[in-house]
Amino acid sequence: RSQLCVLVHVIAPRPAFEPIPASVDLSLGCQLNVTLTAVDYTEAGLTLEVARDQGYLLRVVPGPSQRSSRYRAAQPYQLRTSSLLPNSWVVNNSVTYTFLWRPARFEEGFDYRVCFEAKGFIDGLSLTGVGLERIACTDVRVLRCRFCALPGTTLQGLAAEWRSDWLTIWSGNHALVQGDSITEDTEIMVGPVMTVRPIMNCTVGVGFCLERLDTVAARYGVAVPDLLWWNPDLRDESFEASGGRLAEGQEMCVLPNTCLTNAYIDSYKG
User: Fold this and answer.
1) What tens digit of pLDDT does each residue of 191-226 get?
2) Which of 137, 114, 116, 140 is nearest to 28 (CA)?
3) Rounded CA gap, 210 and 160, in Å?
4) CA distances from 210 to 11, 99, 126, 219 (A)
5) Any idea what DSSP says for residue 265?
6) Are 18 and 37 in contact (CB under 8 A)?
7) Nearest-angstrom CA–CA distance, 117 and 217
8) Most exposed among 31, 142, 173, 191, judged by the fewest C-beta atoms under 10 Å?
9) Which helix (H) or strand (E) holds 24?
């Protein structure tokens, strides 16, 4: 009596992404647009045509997203107002998706890591596949004091939202006209970004100390609650847990008090 054994090796899927930007600086209200193309040549290195004919398909799904700051270690974070949509086929080989995200107010001043996963499909079954190429991530820094105009944005409305006045905002954006609607996606510098520096010969520490929220507020003629309003990472409980200490080189959004009494902008463009 003889016995015949056959060793069958099922070729595993190996989804992989084409390169995406490693890092992006994004202004509040601007739209992040990332094109994600994934392919699966399988672990055997088949051509796409052969792999597709053999039933090796894939789709793109959201991976974990994280948010971090100077005071907060990276933690899971659910992005608001984001979407991941297929350009044509939901499942195919290759397949292309578009990720869209427009950061909302109070998401500025933080760093985000946004990840995606290419999932393999064979006969309708979802498979993880081999290789780390199936994961793609991009790091996004949402800038302080920068804003992309949305439909209906006006200089006066923007000033009211940011607890300032129209002259303060216009002073950094002379192309804008007071009262007029601002073209959508126009990037606006809401105010200057200051860098925390040591104060020489102050009474705390040995020889120098760093500025505090109250000293920054006094220097620019604003209130501490306004500094917290303009810098959401300083409103975070992790900042309080640090003892409210500012660090040398740290950036802060500040809209100085211009002591406005009377002003006029000539909209003549001739």
Assistant:
1) 999 998 877 656 554 445 778 898 889 888 899 999
2) 140
3) 31
4) 60, 41, 54, 14
5) -
6) yes
7) 45
8) 31
9) strand 23-28
